[in-house]
Amino acid sequence: MAFDGREPIFLQIADQIRTQVLSGALREEEQVMSTTQYATAYRINPATAAKAFAELVEEGTLYKRRGVGMFVAPGARERLVAARRERFFTDVVDPVAEQARLLGIPLDDVVARLREQAHGEGEAR
Question: Disulfide engineering: 51 pairs with which of 10, 40, 95, 98, CB 3.0-4.6 Å?
């Protein structure tokens, strides 16, 4: 993973782990790399990785087994899906609906375009 500098590295690590949980690359009860392994693999300060893990523990995505390591929490994927779903509507759909309204684009046109994209038909536009 290359860190792009837009967000703090600890947030990028946390997002990477969330994405792995959402995609199924990391499953419930599966152990994740330790902070030392992250620090070594990505050449970052171990405290940075620890900060990412602390955030993930606080939100319930990971949990710690004393003396063993960090694991994906039961129900983590479902919680992440619910949170991202709500953010999707707030951050993506609502602004699109507002722009369509401002531009006088009928809702049916927006829905048709979404259907085209979902079926891979809108790539040549």
Answer: 10
